[in-house]
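Researcher: Let's do a round of design. I'm pasting the structure tokens now; please hold your answer until I've finished.
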């Protein structure tokens, strides 16, 4: 934060010289934000809260198309808050797009506390997942955490993240999969080859094979179809 007169004597309006310690600090630097939600009242409420937190410029969009237009016209904002259920497309796809365009602070504000939705948001590049039912204090805490460069999960969904990647193996014993292993399994479920998975995740085909071998050992099967079926039944992938 810039400090007026830091280390330099400053004159008051009467001409008296003030020491640096007596010069008042200005307000913290304002941040810019894009709010994407198709419900006008909720969008306006979020915008008002952000302004109370120091947002100087608040852009609003009610759809994926409007958000893309705003992003193209204004470039990356300091923060974006996005709904997942938009009328013309997936909010998750929008998170991925904005992330690729240099938006580094993305907050998902959603209705669902489904573990798959939560994990998918973070995997797409979000830094926070908040529920629309959250209290103003939780929303404020989450936004502040992201603005400070951290990550945040709504207290209601945080426990889901801890258990959301557990898949019962062929012996019905739950095994914990890493976020990368879940990504690999999802792409296997999408029908992609090891080479295609590697290209999508910036990994070598050999590394993808190693991930699959590790997943197979955890789940007790080397069969790709069975690994996918087990993960789907557990709700880890779609």
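Researcher: That's everything. Go ahead.
Model: Designed sequence:
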């Amino acid at each position: 934060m810039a400090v007026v007169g830091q280390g330099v004597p400053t004159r008051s309006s009467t001409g008296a010289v003030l020491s640096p310690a007596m010069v008042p600090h200005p307000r913290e630097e304002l941040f810019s934000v894009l709010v994407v939600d198709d419900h006008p009242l909720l969008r306006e409420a979020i915008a008002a809260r952000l302004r109370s937190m120091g947002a100087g410029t608040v852009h609003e969009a009610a759809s994926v198309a409007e958000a893309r237009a705003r992003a193209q016209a204004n470039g990356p904002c300091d923060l974006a808050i996005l709904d997942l259920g938009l009328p013309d497309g997936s909010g998750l796809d929008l998170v991925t797009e904005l992330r690729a365009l240099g938006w580094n602070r993305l907050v998902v504000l959603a209705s669902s506390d489904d573990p798959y939705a939560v994990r998918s948001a973070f995997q797409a590049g979000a830094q926070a997942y908040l529920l629309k039912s959250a209290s103003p204090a939780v929303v404020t805490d989450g936004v502040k955490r992201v603005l400070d460069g951290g990550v945040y999960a709504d207290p209601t969904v945080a426990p889901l993240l801890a258990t959301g990647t557990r898949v019962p193996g062929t012996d019905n014993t739950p095994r914990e999969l890493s976020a990368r292993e879940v990504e690999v399994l999802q792409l296997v479920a999408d029908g992609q080859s090891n080479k295609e998975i590697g290209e999508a995740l910036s990994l070598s085909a050999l590394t993808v094979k190693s991930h699959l071998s590790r997943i197979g050992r955890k789940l007790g099967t080397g069969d790709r179809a069975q690994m996918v079926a087990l993960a789907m039944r557990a709700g880890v992938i779609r």
